[in-house]
TrEMBL record:
Gene behind the chain: ccsB
Keyword Transmembrane helix included in the entry's annotation: yes
UniProt domain Cytochrome c assembly protein: residue ranges: 99-306
Transmembrane domains' residue ranges: 12-35, 71-93, 105-122, 129-151, 163-189, 222-242, 254-273, 280-298
Keywords: Cytochrome c-type biogenesis, Membrane, Transmembrane, Transmembrane helix
Species of the source: Aeromicrobium piscarium
Lineage: Bacteria, Bacillati, Actinomycetota, Actinomycetes, Propionibacteriales
Main location: membrane
Protein name: C-type cytochrome biogenesis protein CcsB
Length: 310
C-alpha cells in the first residue's frame, strides 16, 4: 500500500471511531435512562398494584439496562480497535512514531485510555465508568480533530529517540489521568447521593463511592511517575539535545510543571494528610484540567519552542 492509502485509512478509521464512540455514549445514556425508569415507576407501582407488580416491572426493565450496557461495551471495544488501526496506519503513513503533533498526540492518548479502560473492565469489572470515559474521550478527540494536519516527517528538532521516550511516557500518563478523572467524577456523583440517601437504580449500578475514590487514587498513582519521567526527566534531556538547554521556562514546560505540582500535591495529601473523598476528587479534577491546558490550551494561545507541535 502507498503512503497516501495508509493516510486515508487512518483518517477514515478516526472518523468511524468517533461515530462509534458517539453511539457507545448513547448506549450508556440509555442504560442510565432505563435504570431511572425503575426508580420513577417504583413509588406509583408500590401504591397501586400490590407487592408483585414492582418486581415484575423491574424484571422487565433490568434486562433492558443490561442490554444497553453490553451494547455500550461492545461499541467501545469496536471504537478502540478502530483507533488502534488509525494510529498504526498514521504511523505507517508518516514513516515514524505517530505522536509528532497535537493531532497525533490526542489520537494516541485516547487509544491508550480506551485500552486501559477495557483492561480495567476485564480485571476489575469497572464497566460502570464507560459513559464518563467515553464522554471524556470524545471531548479530547474533538480537540485533536480540530488540530488535524496531514501526515508527514518530523521537524529536525523532534528527530531524536529522546522525543519518542518523552512523548510516549507523557501520552501514557495522560491516558491514566483521563481514567482517574472519570473515576473522580463518578465518585462525586455517587458520594453526594449516598450522603442524601438518594442512591437510585442508576447509581446502584456503580460501586460504592469509597471504591471509586480508591480506584481514582490508584490510577493517578500509576500516572504520576510516568508524567514525572516523561515531562521532567526525558523532556529536559531531549531539550538539551534539541535546543542546547535543559529547561527554559517555555510555556509548555511551565504548564507541564504546574500539572506535576498539582498531582504531586494530590498524592501527598492522600498519603500524609488523609485527604480522601470530595477534596481529593476536586484536587484530581484540577490536575486533569491543567493537563488538558498543557496539551491543548498552551499550543493554541501560547507561543514558544513547542509551537511546532501544533
Amino acid at each position: 500500500m502507498t503512503v497516501e492509502q495508509f493516510a486515508q485509512i487512518s483518517n477514515y478509521t478516526t472518523v468511524a471511531a468517533t461515530c462509534v464512540l458517539g453511539l457507545a455514549l448513547l448506549a450508556y445514556v440509555a442504560e442510565w435512562a432505563f435504570a431511572r425508569k425503575v426508580e420513577a415507576n417504583a413509588p406509583a407501582m408500590a401504591g397501586s398494584a400490590g407487592p408483585a407488580s414492582p418486581v415484575a416491572e423491574e424484571s422487565d426493565v433490568e434486562p433492558v439496562t443490561d442490554r444497553f450496557s453490553r451494547i455500550g461495551l461492545v461499541l467501545t471495544v469496536l471504537a478502540t480497535a478502530l483507533m488502534i488501526v488509525s494510529v498504526v496506519t498514521r504511523g505507517l503513513a508518516a514513516g515514524r512514531v505517530p505522536w509528532g503533533n497535537m493531532y497525533e498526540f490526542g489520537l494516541m492518548g485516547i487509544t491508550i485510555a480506551l485500552v486501559i479502560y477495557l483492561v480495567l473492565v476485564w480485571k476489575y469489572q469497572v464497566q460502570w465508568a464507560g459513559g464518563i470515559v467515553v464522554a471524556f474521550g470524545l471531548v479530547v478527540l474533538g480537540m485533536s480533530l480540530s488540530t488535524y494536519v496531514p501526515a508527514g516527517p518530523l521537524v529536525p528538532a523532534l528527530d531524536s529517540h529522546w522525543f519518542i521516550i518523552h512523548v510516549g511516557a507523557v501520552v501514557l500518563a495522560g491516558a491514566f489521568f483521563l481514567v482517574g478523572a472519570a473515576a473522580s467524577v463518578l465518585y462525586l456523583i455517587r458520594a453526594r447521593a449516598e450522603a442524601k440517601g438518594t442512591v437510585g437504580p442508576v447509581l446502584r449500578r456503580f460501586p460504592a463511592a469509597a471504591v471509586m475514590d480508591k480506584i481514582a487514587y490508584r490510577v493517578n498513582a500509576m500516572a504520576f511517575p510516568l508524567w514525572t519521567f516523561g515531562a521532567l526527566i526525558a523532556g529536559p534531556i531531549w531539550a538539551h539535545y534539541a535546543w542546547g538547554r535543559y529547561w527554559g521556562w517555555d510555556p509548555k514546560e511551565v504548564w507541564a510543571f504546574i500539572t506535576w505540582v498539582v498531582y504531586a500535591g494530590y498524592l501527598h495529601a492522600r498519603a500524609t494528610a488523609g485527604w480522601k473523598g470530595r477534596r481529593a476528587a476536586y484536587f484530581c479534577l484540577i490536575g486533569f484540567v491543567t493537563f488538558l491546558f498543557s496539551y491543548y490550551g498552551v499550543n493554541l494561545f501560547g507561543s514558544g519552542l513547542h509551537s511546532y507541535a501544533k
